[in-house]
Amino acid sequence: MAQLAERVGRLEEVVAQQAERIGRLEEAVARLAEAQARTEERVARLEEAMAQLAERVAHLEEAMAQLAERVARLEARMIRMEERLMRRLTAFGARWGLRSERAWREGMRAVLEATGFEVERWVAFDAAGVVFDSPSDVELDVIVRDGKTIIVELRTSVSREALPTMERKVKFYEQQTGRKVDRRILITPWYEPGADAIARRWGWELYGEPEELQIEE
Prior knowledge:
Elements: H1 2-95, H2 101-115, E1 120-126, E2 136-145, E3 148-154, H3 162-177, E4 181-187, H4 195-201, E5 204-207
Parallel strand pairs: 3-4, 4-5
Antiparallel strand pairs: 1-2, 2-3
């Protein structure tokens, strides 16, 4: 009996030791769980901060894209303004004999075609001298679209005296081709005072630049 009691005592001691170890393990597990909870909380905060940062970066990228688009539009406007300024300077140069009128018209015709208009150069000999009061070639720039005939007159400048000649050219074209001219378009950067009002009364549409021209489909 004494031996049995001794063995029971040792078993109780072992059980107590195991219980103590289990208690320590449970305490360690609790500390680990608490640490894990704190880590998960920190990770959640980091994820939230990363999401906010990503959103800010997205806003910045969008703002940068909008800014780049605005800069591109401004650059395009500046290029167009420079081109228009150069064309006007060239037109005035042609007016004062620094460059030929024909060269300027060729440049404007190229701008029209680049804008999307198919310009036909019509040339016919006026043997009776109806247009210029003596036999000579008559040249016109013509756009034919959807069965409509549009005369485009390209000039570096327009004086009052030039308007009757322009009208005679239109009439001569109608007589020679049998086509009715539906629209008269005048593109020029400079008018003699009063010439623009007369041109409008005669049915001419006035534009300062080829890019301003719009023809309904």
